[in-house]
């Protein structure tokens, strides 16, 4: 489909199948060094993240053909989920610079999950099944089992602090997790700030009642929802464990430091459905 789409154009196109996640980053980095206009990630948020790592702070733009489970990144920048329509955007690509979140030597484009969502990502990663239904199953099976841990947050600018046991705890760069679930309705990947989002544990009845608000971009209506803007975030937690970066889990210790990399990535967006 890709070769056919670009067959009549004067663009030089290479289609390469990656071996694993690290190979995605290597391929993207090589393309940037060779002066390619675009690196097109064919996959989900994990593939997009690794491709972004390879071209960070370069003149090469990141584009995506979404074939993942949630496609959070693609949804946030307005990329159609139908591949034919997503391909059409690459004929005359519209690109701009966006911010990127950073945790140690890793990055995230959409979100960094530290609470229950990190547990979901870990269970989903270990599953052989992909798609929305297996992800929802992982969420349901882990909700009652997960015990929120004590955390302390310090954020700049302003010296904002928080201490508590949130069920859901995300630091996001974009509005939506994926599949239409919005955690930070007012987030912008071009404002030089990250969005700290916290939701306390609720009964299953309240979960059923308020989850639809996340699909309606009215997350602020959920009781106990906390939202704070920050450029730097320091988190101290009771014990180590996985956090997720754009849906991929990684082990981290008790202290986690997150900051923003302003305008660090050039990306292709859909100008008719962006912002």
Structural class: alpha+beta
User: Total number of helical segments?
Assistant: 8
Summarize the helix and strand pattern as letters. Answer: HHEHEHHEEEHHEEEEEEHEEEEE
Output the radius of gyration: 19 Å
Number of strands: 16
Contiguous runs where pLDDT drops below 50 for at least 5 residues: none
Distance between the termini: 29 Å
**What portion of residues belong to β-strands?**
25-35%
Shape: globular
CATH architecture of the largest domain: Sandwich
Percent helix: 25-40%
Strand order, main sheet: write it out.
4-3-16-13-6-7
| Largest beta-sheet details | 6 strands, antiparallel
What is the level 1 CATH name of the largest domain?
Answer: Mainly Beta
Number of domains: 2
Mean pLDDT: 92
CATH third-tier fold name of the largest domain: Tumour Suppressor Smad4
């Amino acid at each position: 489909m890709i070769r056919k789409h670009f067959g009549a154009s004067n663009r030089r196109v290479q289609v390469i199948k990656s071996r694993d996640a690290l190979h995605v980053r290597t391929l993207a980095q090589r393309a940037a060094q060779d002066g390619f206009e675009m690196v097109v990630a064919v996959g989900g948020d994990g593939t997009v993240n690794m491709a972004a790592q390879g071209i960070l702070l370069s003149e090469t733009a990141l584009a995506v053909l979404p074939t993942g489970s949630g496609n959070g990144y693609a949804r946030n920048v307005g990329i159609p989920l139908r591949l034919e329509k997503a391909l059409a955007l690459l004929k005359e690509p519209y690109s701009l610079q966006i911010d990127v979140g950073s945790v140690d030597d890793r990055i995230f484009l959409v979100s960094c999950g530290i609470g229950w969502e990190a547990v979901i990502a870990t269970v989903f990663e270990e599953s052989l099944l992909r798609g929305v239904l297996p992800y929802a199953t992982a969420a349901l099976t882990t909700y009652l089992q997960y015990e929120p841990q004590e955390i302390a947050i310090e954020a700049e600018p302003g010296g904002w602090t928080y201490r508590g046991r949130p069920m859901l705890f995300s630091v996001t760069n974009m509005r939506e997790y994926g599949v239409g679930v919005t955690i930070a309705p007012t987030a912008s990947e071009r404002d030089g700030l990250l969005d700290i989002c916290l939701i306390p544990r609720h009964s299953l009845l309240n979960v059923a009642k308020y989850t639809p608000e996340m699909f309606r971009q009215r997350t602020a209506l959920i009781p106990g929802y906390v939202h704070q803007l920050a450029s730097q975030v320091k988190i101290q937690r009771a014990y180590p464990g996985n956090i997720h970066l754009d849906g991929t889990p990684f082990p981290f210790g008790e202290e986690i430091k997150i900051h923003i990399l302003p305008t660090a990535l050039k990306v292709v967006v859909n100008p008719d459905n962006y912002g």
